[in-house]
Amino acid sequence: GENVEQHPSTLSVQEGDSAVIKCTYSDSASNYFPWYKQELGKGPQLIIDIRSNVGEKKDQRIAVTLNKTAKHFSLHITETQPEDSAVYFCAATIDTGGFKTIFGAGTRLFVKA
Amino acid sequence: ETGVTQTPRHLVMGMTNKKSLKCEQHLGHNAMYWYKQSAKKPLELMFVYNFKEQTENNSVPSRFSPECPNSSHLFLHLHTLQPEDSALYLCASSQVAQQTDTQYFGPGTRLTVL
Predict the structure, then answer these.
(1) What is the pLDDT of residue A70?
(2) Which chain A residues are Cβ-neighbours of B31 within 8 angstroms?
């Protein structure tokens, strides 16, 4: 069935360094890829998304890249700050008339001051 | 906050109890969702409502019964649950139920089934 693999499960970086989280998906019909950030005690919050007709998208310190041929996409956070510490989830969605969203297992990011 | 509220925030129930989770959105959205977040599994979509009509049921056991009386309110009725149903239950809303619409999540209800 459909599957989204996310790596690493835990990532620790020094403040100011970059962080990269990678995801792969199995269903080639997936065409929308959102990324969520979840802080302790809160629900996930969309931080950036990318559609299948675009290879890269950037929003300030956050960027996402998509390689449809290889079926993988990545989140890049530059100049990390302690407030970036959270759990990050990737997802792949398929339009089936309705839609189906498959989430990755999450990456816990620690940014050390 | 996101404009999506959930009550209660924590719930402990026995396997024979009946309880309900409530979600309310103040964003004027027309689609609402229930998700299950377990410690050892990825976030799972359970149900989708679009303009009060259920459009998705991802093979959820019948001991979970959703109800959407209007576009602003969503309930999840629980009965005869199992310990493995213990999880964080998240509600979300979006303008309409389409894949590229941003979903806004509530803080969740932490459910423990004894």
Answers:
(1) 94
(2) none
